[in-house]
Amino acid sequence: MELTRRFLDTGAVRMHVTEQGHGYPVVFCHGFPHTSFLWHRQLAALAAAGYRAVAPDLRGYGHTDAPADIAAYTNAAVIGDLLALLDDLGAEQAVFVGLDFGAQLVWELALREPGRVAAVAVLNNPFSPRPPRAPSEFWTDAAQRHFLHLAYFQEPGVADAELAARPREFLARVYYSLSGDYHYLDTWQNPPGLGYLDVLPKAPELPWSWLSEAEFDTVATEFERTGFTGGLNWYRNLDRNWALTEAFAAAKIEVPTYFLYGENDPDMEGFSGRDPLATLRANVTDLRAVVQVPRAGHLVQLERTDLVDAFLLDALRDLGVPARTRA
């Protein structure tokens, strides 16, 4: 089964969609700085098992439109794209898989539109309830003590120019630093006022044990063409997302949920609270699996493809989602 590519008019943007296989839909949502391509191994695995695996370039990335208005990158806006995708697939529901910003997106989708979500399978970014204050209020003090990318990314044009000038170097450094091969929070040892490339470690030469030169080249070529502004605009909407979710302040995730995380994932260590798993369990009413992947980091679907593929297929079997058999 070959990977196919097409475009969909969501009513707000022209979305580029890759898909593979036939059967029940499973939709993959990527993060920063990724594209739909970083799910290509999972698309192949699920297609081979009898499912329709679908991965859009989310707005601002790849071949999907990148609106100029920063406010166009809220979760609420992108959820509109996902609902249009579901309608285009002719599906009332799908299983949604998310990582990084894609995880935050599918968590909010499950709150806003639970009837369209058969289940969520989230990697590395656990659910936590809406905080009492805007996110920026939590990181302001930290950003005055040490470099923090969340703060550095806020000023339009600054990080955009730095990263676009050296896209391949940035991607190699950030992918390596977020993996289980490095301790990402060591970047916090650097003072504020630096650029991101000033604090990221030098990456080993490719290929790596979990990423080939061809795979890296595919992603890097895309960012050489597009730059990073679309993805950075997601960071610039963190406070706006908080303001738009006031109605969900006390809400819990009620759809079936499967969670997998890398043992060395920096989001679990430094960005998800003191006890992220306890918070997850307290706020997800139908949590069916929590799986730790030893020695893996943030790009767990690449670092341990075998375990992630098995996790997703186990989740689909647990849900009772039928796999399509070949005629």
Automatic annotation (TrEMBL):
It holds the Pfam family Abhydrolase_1. InterPro entries: AB_hydrolase_1 (IPR000073), AB_hydrolase_fold (IPR029058), Epox_hydrolase-like (IPR000639). Residues 24-304 form the AB hydrolase-1 domain. Keywords: Hydrolase. The keyword Hydrolase applies. Transmembrane segments: none annotated. It comes from the Bacteria. PANTHER family: EPOXIDE HYDROLASE (PTHR43329). This is Alpha/beta fold hydrolase. It comes from Nocardia rhizosphaerae.
